[in-house]
């Protein structure tokens, strides 16, 4: 060790920026007026020329509140019980459901619903753009584990 390293000047902490909060300062509670909306939707231009407003689907919340469709639950339970591979139809249903849950505007629906775009009207290219744009593949494989 050199004498410089032992000197009081070398041992001092660098000066702090006055705007930096102290490490022990608890975070400030957000007031109702300053509360930010939940995650901002992402506008995705689709290969078809359509534009959709999408968000990350709250899969954990949907699961905990029992809002995952019965056919998806049945496939997930069968897979967990005997590690059976998912069928192509089950994978399609799971991805379609994730896309529907991610839709904000226009709403996209698994079933014919007034004011919503039926999932069957989306081309595979549009579905791929949504899946890639939102990173849904990680949620897809998370559900399939």
Q: Output the strand order for the largest sheet.
A: 1-2-3
- Average pLDDT confidence is 81
SSE pattern, N- to C-terminal: HHEEHHHEEEHH
Structural Rg? 24 Å
The best one-word shape is: globular
Largest sheet: 3 strands, antiparallel
The number of strands is 5
Give the number of helices: 7
What class, by secondary structure content? Answer: mainly alpha
Supply the key terms.
145 residues; mainly alpha; three-stranded antiparallel β-sheet; 10% strand
Description of the molecule:
It contains 7 helices and 5 strands; from the N terminus they run H-H-E-E-H-H-H-E-E-E-H-H. The protein is mainly alpha-helical and 145 residues long. It has one domain (43-144). The strands form 2 sheets. Strands 1-2-3 form a 3-stranded antiparallel beta sheet. Strands 4-5 form a two-stranded parallel ribbon. Helix 5 crosses helix 7. The longest helix is centred in the middle third of the chain and has 15 residues, at 88-102. The chain starts with a helix and ends with a helix. The model has no long low-confidence stretch (mean pLDDT 81).
